């Protein structure tokens, strides 16, 4: 795969991962009511996310309510919120920086070395964004798993399990880090060395050899 195609594939993967991370942050299905156990309750399905909690009835009616207070939320929800916001900001800046550094754009094409370094910087931003998304989703999933398996008087069918937004978040983190890794490969060391060697091997045209003056007499003087 050529350098331009690799950069384009990395950019599209990073952009798709950022959009998926945005969808995962907005969706309220970070955890949902479990249907395990003998007595299955299907009349109402409960969903909770980072920003709101919803109740879906069997008739198709859905009622959602935003979380009332930020400080009253659990620590893992507050931490996941902060990590997702940081992830979206890093991914947004990564999208802008990567466009400037890609070879298929005409911005700064007179300096290919600096342009490649800008693309690498965009790839690093994508990787950091994916790591923040992965940390947020994994932290929330760990808390859901702990609350599901701990000893409690709550029946199993009244507990919570993984929601669809967690899987969207894991996929978004994978795509974003993959795209960032491809962008980071856009500035190989061989290319930089070849450009430096080419610049050093070019002859200098600043100084021209002095013109030798002819020692023979002028024709007019010979006629005289």
Task: Describe what is shown at a glance.
The chain has 224 residues and is an alpha+beta fold. The protein has helices spanning 3-26, 75-101, 112-149, 164-184, 189-201, 219-223, and strands at residues 31-33, 44-48, 52-57, 62-66, 160-162. The radius of gyration is 31 Å and the shape is elongated.
Could you characterize the architecture of this molecule?
Helix content is 57%, strand content 10%. The chain is elongated and about 65 Å long. A 5-stranded antiparallel beta sheet has the order 4-3-2-1-5. Residues 194-198, 204-208 and 218-224 have low confidence and may be disordered. A hairpin with a 3-residue loop joins strand 2 and strand 3 (52-57). The chain has 224 residues and is of the alpha+beta class. The protein is built from 6 helices and 5 strands. It has helices at residues 3-26, 75-101, 112-149, 164-184, 189-201, 219-223; strands spanning 31-33, 44-48, 52-57, 62-66, 160-162.
